[in-house]
Fold this protein.
Amino acid sequence: LVITKTVVGPVTEEEAAGALTFQVTTVIEGVTKYLTKDGKLVDEVTTLKLSDSCFEDAGDGKWTATFSNLPTGKYNVTEINTAIKDKDGNNYKFIKDDSITVKENVAVSTTSGATVDLKDVYETYKTDVTICKKDTNNKEVVGAVLTLTSSDTSANFADLGVTASQNGRPASGQEVKGNSIKWTTVSDYDTIIHNVPDGVYTLSETTTPDEYVKADDITIEIVGGTVVTPSTPVVMLDNLKASDPTPSTDTTPAGSTTTPAGSTTTPAGSTTTPAGSTTTPAGSTTTPAGSTTTPAGSTTTPAGSTTTPAGSTTTPAGSTTTPAGSTTTPAGSTTTPAGSTTTPAGSTTTPAGSTTTPAGSTTTPAGSTTTPAGSTTTPAGSTTTPAGSTTTPAGSTTTPAGSTTTPAGSTTTPAGSTTTPAGSTTTPAGSTTTPAGSTTTPAGSTTTPAGSTTTPAGSTTTPAGSTTTPAGSTTTPAGSTTTPAGSTTTPAGSTTTPAGSTTTPAGSTTTPASETSEASQTTDSAEPSGSAFTTGASDTSEASGTSDAATTTESSSTSVAGDTTGAAGETTESGSTPSGTAFTTGASGTTGSAPTTGGKYIPATGEDVTLTVTLAVVSFVVAGGLAFFAIRRSKKDEETEEK
């Protein structure tokens, strides 16, 4: 971080180095740190001076300080004191508008440092001093030579621009030399010395007219551009010399006295000069043109305007104009030469018509009002903040991005979407989304966050594609429709009831009872010798598709000629049958008696044919049942897939 300081003006380097002070700060982790002359950051408040070792005097009123290896960040450089006095203790005039005393947020990074250039501009305070030369009778002394000399022997009035004028013209006999200026007094006009710096001066009479005694010197002190000793204008009085014993006056019978120079004094004390000016005993002087000057130096014209020694002029109407050109009315309003008018209440109106109140609010001729905080209110009542938000009289607020919020809390974006205070958002197309995520289209359809869509008619479609009507019917994507009663209709037109009955489009109906039938079973239990053998009819199982056909059971001690096993039936032989036991066929209802020999069954005549036929029938029934259930099961699988 490099800091340069330049001082412009009559200030010496010694005066600046001992007076100007600075602070360099940064913020680290929320704590303000101060830079020391050694380049360290500390918590204690630290002030730097141009006389510190960190500043190098480069001459010509310029100093430079370089601080290395600082933590990166933003730094603020602020000049704390700008007041400088000269060697005599007089303040220099600081020209703020031409100076740079603060630099904020100066970025110091690892790749580049930063240079801060500060500058102070100073001038010597200067003022005008009015000097009057009169005698003890308050009469102007003409022809006296006066000199104003500075106590600063190094001062150069020519360089400082010190001059003298009388009636707006260069003073008679003006001569500027070193630290002094000389001039000759004239009639009717005071002498004004211009651009006199702060300091101590001596006013002396170098040449005195013959009829006067030389006046004593007067010390004049000027501080901060103001004459503090004596009061202004500065009046130097001459005493008349002692009277000549030879009569020099003529006295009229009325008592008026005329001097050889032509001046006439009345018994009342008024004196009239040959030029026509009249001075009263109180010291007021009236010129032939009618202007009257009081002993204090104020001059009143015949028109009634009064000008003070300081140059202010007051009209008969009461308005006062200062030498700088400002005019104050009797009501207290002040108008500057630039045309701005300030009322007694403190409001200021510019020539363009803008009015600023003491609180800082500014109203333009168009009626717009800007507060010190930067908010602007138009005549229509709309208010715009510094950030760019605009609030209408109705309470609606529009942000710079274009969003508009109504007093009720609804917010409309530039794209046209409107969000209510409850959180619902309506797009320009008319769709409304609730805070829970449900979206309703202008046509009235509502889609939940899970993806289900309900139409205005009440139908609901799930994300999987199933649709339920208000009456409770549900249609799958495959086309199957289930009613609230539980009936299901396939796309092919078949309808299955909750009881399991299925009706085809052709009108055929299959009930669960046709699928499951168990007519009879043949049981031969605890059969004694000679008991009948019974063969059961076809046995068809339930919807599972399992078939038991022509199951033959023989228990206890029954003996048959042979075993038959297979899909057509199952014959069980257990125990032994005594000779002469009869065999009974249940299917045909025919009982034949055939004796047995040695446990062997001997068929009767034609019985082999009957058994063969019976077995063939049973096999046919079993095979048909198996085929039926296989086809039925395949159809049910297809319906299950459709559902």
